[in-house]
Description:
The protein contains 17 helices and 2 strands. The chain is mainly alpha-helical. The protein has a single domain, classed as Na+/H+ antiporter like domain (Na+/H+ antiporter like fold). A two-stranded antiparallel ribbon has the order 1-2. Helix 1 runs parallel beside helix 11, helix 3 packs antiparallel against helix 11 and helix 8 runs antiparallel to helix 9. The chain is globular, with a radius of gyration of 22 Å. The two termini are about 25 Å apart.
Amino acid sequence: MTGNAFGTAGLFGRGSWPEARRIADILRKETIGGALLLAGAVAAMIWANSPWSGAYEALRATEVGPAVLHLRLDLATWAADGLLAIFFFVAGLELKREFVAGDLRQMRRAAVPVAAAVGGVVAPAGLYLLITGNATGAATGWAIPTATDIAFALAVLAVIGRYLPVALRTFLLTLAVVDDLLAIAIIAVFYTDHLAWGALAAAAVPLAVFAALVRRRVRAWWLLLPSALAVWALVHASGVHATVAGVLLAFAVPVVRSQAAGDPQAGPGLAEHFEHRFRPVSAGVAVPVFALLSAGVPLGGVSGLVTAFSDPVAIGIVVGLTVGKPVGIAVATWLVARFTHARLDEGLAWVDVLGLSILSGIGFTVSLLIGELAFGLGSDRDDHVKMAVLAGSLVAALLAAVILRLRNRVYRDIHEAETADRDGDDIPDVYQRVPGQHG
């Protein structure tokens, strides 16, 4: 590999030991969250197709909240606008930390997941538009197959790829985080119909208060929560989807403290603290409850399925997730490798990239959210979207399972090498072969 701005490391370097340990902790929490998400989705589907389906719809339609700032909302909307704001807050914290203090602050490491995420948005969107063609109103759903659900994907990995190398797991997580940022940008730009500039401008005031508090290292929830809720409520009232507030608040949180010489408070900032506190809430409560209140759709028997998958929108989503997503990610990754003259790390092959790219076609949480925004909650097309997202995600999971299981023996050997600790110092030996990587 020739020398350039991207350095001389392999395409999927395992990174530093502190970062690998932090990523492993995140993945454990997200895997548990993925299991809860799947449980919520299955419960929703069973309930919506049971004799008690009326109770399910009544629950979703139950309205709570004050009328001020249009906050008298049904529970399904509260789940999409409120609970997913927590999800995007955590995603924003993770993204900022990765690019400010994590391994991705290095250009050569950031290039691969960022390029892959962009490819994983462009390709499925293009395929979706090609398939839906001139179908009336279908074009508004172009962003539905562009999302990757990291919790769902990790739940699948827990079953089929428990020995997947650290570098590939880190790539999947980072890809999904960048993907989430792209998704929230798409929601803010393309799915905002009516913008109330006054409310949006007013949101800057509590956001500034929140930013000032966290920069002074304030952690007390009773001081931070009022300003955070005010930001969320005003963004919601502005017409911009309220989940954008989660990202704005996350980006205001400092990643590192002052690094001034002799500063006793120098070191990690509040981002890591908040991520540790809120990730269990996001993965264990927010996303599973959203799945429970959003995934339930009456199948209507064989005729209902035939009707749903006769809709070009449903076909476009399934093809986008199962073909467009992996093609976009794999091709973008290959192009980065060609441009930087990089090589895959020892033991890895391009079939591993393909398997991971197919796994990234599992789009659930954000895909369902965009479907509701594109076609309207409870509409016929929204139901078709839900069936297509579920079907596409299931197909992607099965295809990825086949490919990754074929490589399981190779992954097991890499895993044994990555976890070997012959000197018993609680740091795997592989991270001590390069000076400065053992923290």
